[in-house]
Design goal:
Blueprint (H helix, E strand, L loop, with lengths): L7 H14 L8 E3 L11 E2 L4 E7 L1 E4 L8 E2 L3 E4 L4 E2 L1 E2 L4 E9 L2 E9 L6 E6 L4 H13 L6 H20 L8 H15 L7 H7 L4 H11 L4 H19 L4 H7 L5 H12 L3 H6 L3
Parallel strand pairs: 1-6
Antiparallel strand pairs: 2-7, 3-6, 3-9, 4-5, 4-8, 9-10, 10-11
Length: 281
């Protein structure tokens, strides 16, 4: 069978990442951005973690004095909700990777070279491995001197990115379907957090009304019903496997009010949480 070729921009990033992971000796220190109380105009801020890799030249981060020169092969990790203010005093070639819920964003820029900027966004189904590495890097930002641990971890993250970019493209789905599936996967991972239509819409940079339309058009239940369905399913699993107080089960499923949680559970399954758990003892 003929080999499936990646789209041009995707192949570009696959080749770029291959050059990095196959030559790890060229990679150096990993720097960390912080969350300043106030950041000047021009800051680069996202709700999601980001990794910048300097491919050629050097750049800086105006927010942190010691990051005046991040040189070729070095990286800047920006945890979720942290910020950086890039400084380009000379031509620089930079790869930026954004780790959003259920999709991966890659951007390439080469200032002063005349090369066009390239961007691509890719869905990815594997959340656990990537999330674990991002969480570890975020914790290690408190001890940036542990480069013997940090650098191999960053390299593993680049390997993971290369794998995602190199996968054969899936059948193209509409933007609405992709966004709906991304939100559902994110809710399945973050069901214990305080969730509202407004907060989730803001995270995915859409309006609350747009969020409601997505669930109406793409799904089989409303946003509120879907959140409750996910939480009740998780509660049932916890009750089957663990002997925890009902209040603790409620809290782990995103409900501060255990009485309200119990009413919702009984409405959905016809049993109280205690009665349901008794069936598995």
């Amino acid at each position: 069978m003929p080999e499936t070729r990646l789209p041009a921009d995707r192949q570009f990033f696959a080749d770029l990442l291959s050059g990095l992971v196959l030559n790890p000796q060229q990679l150096g220190r990993v720097w960390f951005a912080h969350s300043p109380a106030q950041a000047p105009a021009g800051r680069f801020h996202t709700e999601w973690p980001r990794l910048d890799v300097v491919l050629r030249g050097a750049c800086g981060n105006q927010l942190i004095a010691e990051q005046k020169a991040i040189r070729q092969g070095e990286m800047l990790f920006v945890p979720a909700r942290a910020a950086s203010v890039p400084v380009f005093d000379a031509p620089v070639m930079l790869l930026s990777i954004v780790f959003a819920p259920s999709w991966l964003g890659l951007a390439f820029q080469a200032t002063g070279s005349g090369q066009p900027q390239r961007n691509v966004e890719l869905p990815h189904p594997e959340r656990g491995e990537c999330a674990a590495m991002l969480t570890a890097l975020t914790h290690l930002s408190a001890s940036p001197q542990d480069q013997d641990i940090i650098q191999p971890l960053a390299l593993s993250l680049l390997h993971w990115c290369r794998k995602v970019v190199s996968l054969s493209p899936l059948p193209r789905m509409s933007r609405g379907e992709f966004l709906y599936q991304s939100i559902c996967r994110w809710l399945q991972d973050n069901y214990a957090e305080p969730l509202s239509r407004e907060s989730v819409a803001a995270l995915f940079t859409i309006s609350p009304n747009h969020l409601s339309r997505l669930f109406s058009q793409q799904g089989t239940m409303s946003f509120v019903d879907y959140v409750r369905w996910v939480r009740m399913g998780k509660a049932r699993t916890i009750l089957q496997k663990y002997h925890l107080p009902v209040g603790e089960v409620a809290k782990r499923c995103g409900y501060d009010d255990s009485d309200y949680f119990s009413r919702l559970f009984r409405r959905q399954f016809g049993l109280t949480p205690g009665e349901y758990r008794a069936r598995f003892q």
